[in-house]
Design a protein that fits this description.
It contains seven helices and five strands; from the N terminus they run H-E-E-E-H-H-E-H-E-H-H-H. It is α/β, with parallel strands linked by helices.
Length: 204
C-alpha cells in the first residue's frame, strides 16, 4: 500500500506544477529508519508566491501556491484511525529532526523556508480530537498536513477519458474507471449535492 500511496502523492504534486524528488530508492527492512530516511519526497514549487504567506495547516488546492519547498512524509494507513494516541508515538515524527532538515537542505538548497508536510488518510471526525491532534502535530514541528481524499478528488477531476495516460498506471486506472462509468468526476458529485441528491461513486 505504501507504493500506491506514494504514487498518489507524486502525481498530485506533479499535477500542481511541483518538481518532485524521491529522497531514497531503497526500503528499510531490518532496522528502524533514521530521521532522514523517514522522508519520502522533497518537493519544489517554481511558481510559489512568496508574498502569499504560509499555507493553512490542512492544505487545500489554494494553499499550494504558498508552498515553495517541502519535506513530504506519507502515512497511507487507510484502515487505521489517526488521532492523538498515534501522534504520541515518537517514531512517527522523526522526520522533523535536524538531521532530516539538513539532508533536505543539501538537496534543495537554502532558498526560503522548508515546510514539513505530513500526508494522512484523514484527521479525526470529532472536533475535539481533531483539534487535539492538530495541536500535537504543530507542537512536534509539523507545518501542515495533506489529506488523501483531497488529492484523489483533484486527480480524478484532472483526468480526461479521451487521453491515454500510458506513462502513469495510476492516472490510467482512473481514466478507465471514468471511461466505463465506474467513477464520476467530483464536479458531478458537487451538482448532485446542490440538488439535494446523494452523490454516486459507481454504477451497477
Amino acid at each position: 500500500m505504501s507504493a500506491v500511496g506514494e504514487s498518489i502523492v507524486r502525481e498530485f504534486f506533479e499535477l500542481n506544477g511541483f518538481l518532485v524528488c524521491q529522497h531514497r530508492k531503497y526500503a528499510v527492512m531490518a532496522r528502524a529508519k533514521t530521521a532522514d530516511e523517514e522522508i519520502d519526497f522533497l518537493v519544489h514549487n517554481p511558481h510559489a508566491d512568496p508574498a502569499a504567506g504560509p499555507p493553512n495547516f490542512i492544505i487545500g488546492s489554494d494553499d499550494l501556491k504558498r508552498v515553495a519547498r517541502a519535506i513530504v512524509v506519507v502515512k497511507p494507513w487507510h484502515t487505521e484511525r489517526f488521532g492523538p494516541s498515534v501522534v504520541s508515538k515518537t517514531q512517527l515524527l522523526k522526520f522533523v529532526e535536524k538531521r532530516s532538515l539538513d539532508a533536505a537542505d543539501r538537496r534543495l538548497g537554502h532558498d526560503g523556508p522548508l515546510l514539513k508536510l505530513l500526508v494522512l488518510p484523514d484527521l479525526p471526525a470529532s472536533e475535539s480530537l481533531k483539534s487535539k491532534t492538530i495541536e500535537l502535530l504543530r507542537a512536534a514541528g509539523v507545518d501542515a498536513v495533506i489529506i488523501f481524499r483531497m488529492m484523489l478528488l483533484e486527480l480524478i477531476g484532472s483526468v480526461e477519458v479521451n487521453r491515454n495516460y500510458a506513462k502513469s498506471d495510476l492516472l490510467q486506472i482512473i481514466r478507465l474507471l471514468k471511461l466505463y462509468h465506474l467513477l464520476k468526476s467530483p464536479q458531478l458529485d458537487l451538482f448532485a449535492r446542490k440538488r439535494g441528491q446523494k452523490p454516486e461513486t459507481s454504477s451497477q
